[in-house]
């Protein structure tokens, strides 16, 4: 698996080091210079959030093969967990973020039994899970805690520059994390689970444990992205963070477009399609749904494995 | 007592309607193993078609069916050949179909926004006289009884088609084992395209009446209907058309009773029920699918 067929430990470390640089440098440049060029920090903030989400999804979908269609449930939970601590308990945002992550961890443990399902069943069950949490959070009987349909507002914590910097760093760290996971025994085990779970189990991999780890890492990472995003917004309604289209489906599309299960693919897919999405919104706003709908259809019909594997087939070398 | 009876009667009517709405989705999954996330969008455009025919030609929705059903059957064939055969050549058609049909849903929604705007629209109850009928001491809109009756007609028709004809035998063969069916000479594309067209036509039939019994029609209502349809067929059993009716009954009763007794939770309860059922019995109430270890 992967591009590193170097047998010696030293060579392996070297290849990880150069690959890390290949991730770190372009991302750092984009996040440092992006706000200068576009004059729009919130655009880059969203990009960073989407990169974290794409990396998180890549771990559970790309590596392990489970497609959680209601993936956005963790994003929303992280946002709400963080915002509730800031609003009601007057936590500093940096102290509130871990609480939001803990909330998503608990939720992912609660939903672990869903992983017993596979294929379409799992995808739809996760959609139902999303719907239950989304409707519960927006329910009027929880207004005292979540603000119900009226949402939460915490302008006192608003620090866009600090928040953006942290989010950009986390985005880079999560990209590196995906690289390290894919080169580790853990990553190989996840790939084995995706290819053939029974065979993986027979060759001595504790598939249940690894699968659950992948699920939890994925959930906590997207919960963190949600917390950072909610903090950046300063106030939000349930729809703003529990958006099935934005924080589930778009992320899935980004990952598939770039190449699921690859290291660079999800990031390339996110950057390219996010830019396209913003351009279409800006210039052809009325046709956004139609254009993106067509794009998804064409993507699956003609490039079901994403851009990167195709490039690799033609030029070789990249993974 | 009257409240209990009301809930019971309304749930039965809902059951017929929801079963009809979900039936096509289940047929499509059973035969093609693709998940049509745009199912609800076909319900929505069926609804727009009925509203259009009513406002321009004053057609009663039951009459509009004579136009809408053939129309959607005709749309189905080219759409099938455009999308499904190519999709099924990919590595993982089941998962890829999620994204493909989500794209189709986006596309349809986008066109609906341009065409009809985002104002909620409904058909008028005055299409059906008398407005209300008394039944066992409960008063029910007459339209709902018509809707339940039409739904039953289409469900029975689909049942007869699938379980009592030679064509149905081929459909069931494909559902039971795709490869053996092909080996025995079943024409996959022919059977699949007919089922595909039937599936979206059934969705459109449900759509004709959806604005009277369910929600007002807006361009983005489709995803709600898709989700309800999924809940219904998963509670029953994926890929088993008969089980759709069982799922419809369970879902409708959960929804109907919750709506009357705990209205603030009525939207959550059916999905909570779905989650519980899928965790306890992943293959659905009537399913026999082996579950992973």
Describe this entry's structure for a reader.
The complex is a heterodimer of chains A (319) and B (293). Chain A has 319 residues and is an all-alpha fold. Chain A is 76% helix and 1% strand. Chain A has one domain (9-251). Chain A contains 15 helices and 2 strands. The N and C termini of chain A lie close together (10 Å). Mean pLDDT of chain A is 89; it is low at 1-6. Chain B is built from 11 helices and 2 strands, in the order ααααββααααααα. A two-stranded antiparallel ribbon of chain B has the order 1-2. At the A-B interface, helix 5, helix 9, helix 12 and helix 14 of A face helix 3, helix 4, helix 9 and helix 11 of B.
Task: Give a summary of the structure in a few sentences.
Chain A is built from 15 helices and two strands. With 319 residues, chain A is mainly alpha-helical.
Helix-and-strand structural type of chain A: mainly alpha
Mean pLDDT of chain B: 89
Low-confidence stretches of chain B: none
**Helix run count of chain B:** 11
Q: Using the CA coordinates, give the radius of gyration of chain B.
A: 19 Å
Number of domains of chain B: 1
Ordered list of secondary-structure elements with their pairings:
The complex is a heterodimer of chains A (319) and B (293).
Chain A: H1 9-38, H2 41-63, H3 72-89, H4 93-110, H5 119-137, H6 143-146, E1 152-153, H7 160-183, H8 185-195, H9 197-202, H10 207-233, E2 235-236, H11 238-241, H12 244-258, H13 265-284, H14 288-302, H15 307-315
Antiparallel strand pairs in A: 1-2
Helix pairs in contact in A: 1-2, 1-7, 2-7, 2-10, 2-12, 2-13, 3-4, 3-5, 3-10, 4-10, 7-8, 7-10, 8-10, 12-13
Chain B: H1 2-32, H2 39-57, H3 61-87, H4 93-116, E1 132-135, E2 138-141, H5 142-163, H6 166-176, H7 178-183, H8 188-213, H9 222-236, H10 241-261, H11 269-280
Antiparallel strand pairs in B: 1-2
């Amino acid at each position: 698996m992967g591009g590193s067929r170097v047998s010696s430990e030293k060579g392996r470390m070297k290849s990880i080091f150069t690959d890390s640089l290949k991730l770190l440098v372009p991302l750092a440049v984009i996040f440092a210079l992006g706000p200068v060029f576009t004059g729009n920090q919130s655009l880059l903030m969203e990009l960073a959030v989407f990169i974290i989400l794409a990396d998180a999804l890549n771990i559970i979908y790309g590596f392990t093969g489970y497609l959680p269609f209601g993936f956005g449930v963790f994003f929303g939970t992280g946002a709400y967990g963080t915002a509730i601590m800031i609003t009601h308990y007057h936590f500093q945002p940096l102290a509130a973020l871990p609480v939001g992550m803990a909330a998503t961890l608990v939720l992912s443990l609660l939903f672990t039994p869903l992983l017993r399902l596979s294929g379409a069943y799992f995808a739809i069950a996760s959609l139902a899970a999303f719907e239950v949490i989304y409707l519960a959070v927006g329910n009027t009987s929880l207004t005292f805690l979540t603000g119900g349909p009226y949402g939460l507002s915490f302008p006192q914590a608003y620090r866009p520059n600090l928040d953006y910097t942290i989010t950009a760093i986390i985005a880079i760290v999560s990209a590196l994390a995906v690289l390290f996971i894919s080169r580790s025994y853990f990553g190989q085990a996840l790939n084995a689970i995706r290819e053939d779970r029974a065979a993986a189990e027979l060759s001595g991999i504790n598939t249940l444990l690894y699968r659950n780890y992948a699920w939890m890492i994925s959930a906590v990472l997207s919960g963190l992205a949600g917390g950072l995003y909610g903090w950046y917004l300063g106030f939000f309604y349930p729809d703003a963070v529990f958006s099935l289209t934005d924080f589930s489906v778009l992320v899935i599309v980004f990952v598939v477009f770039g190449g699921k299960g690859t290291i660079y693919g999800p990031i390339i897919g996110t950057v390219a399609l996010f830019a396209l999405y913003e351009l279409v919104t800006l210039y052809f706003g009325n046709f956004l749904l139609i254009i993106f709908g067509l794009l998804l259809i064409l993507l699956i019909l003609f490039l079901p494995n994403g851009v990167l594997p195709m490039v690799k087939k033609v030029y070789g070398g990249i993974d | 007592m009257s409240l209990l009876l009301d809930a019971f009667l309304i749930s039965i009517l809902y059951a017929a309607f929801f079963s009809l709405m979900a039936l096509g989705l289940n047929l499509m999954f059973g035969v093609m193993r693709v998940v049509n996330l745009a199912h609800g969008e076909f319900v929505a455009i069926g609804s727009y078609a009925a509203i259009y025919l009513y406002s321009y030609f004053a057609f009663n929705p039951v009459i509009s069916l004579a136009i809408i059903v053939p129309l959607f059957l005709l749309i189905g064939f080219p759409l099938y050949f455009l999308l499904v055969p190519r999709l099924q050549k990919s590595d993982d058609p089941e998962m890829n179909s999620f994204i493909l049909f989500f794209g189709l849903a986006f596309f349809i929604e986008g066109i609906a926004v341009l065409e009809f705007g985002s104002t909620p629209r409904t058909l008028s109850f005055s299409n059906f006289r008398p407005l209300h009928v008394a039944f066992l001491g409960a008063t029910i809109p007459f339209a709902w009884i018509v809707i339940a009756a039409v739904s039953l007609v289409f469900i029975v028709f689909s049942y007869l088609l699938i379980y009592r004809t030679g064509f149905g035998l081929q459909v069931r063969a494909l559902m039971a084992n795709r490869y053996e069916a092909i080996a025995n000479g079943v024409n996959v594309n022919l059977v699949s395209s007919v089922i595909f067209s039937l599936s979206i036509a059934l969705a459109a039939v449900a759509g004709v009446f959806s604005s009277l019994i369910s929600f007002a029609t807006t361009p983005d209502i489709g995803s709600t209907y898709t989700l309800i349809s999924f809940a219904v067929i998963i509670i029953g059993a994926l890929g088993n058309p008969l089980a759709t009716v069982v799922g419809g009954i369970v879902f409708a009763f959960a929804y109907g009773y919750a709506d009357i007794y705990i209205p603030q939770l009525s939207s959550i309860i059916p999905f909570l029920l779905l989650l519980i059922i899928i965790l306890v019995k992943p293959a659905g109430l009537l399913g026999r699918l082996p579950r992973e270890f």
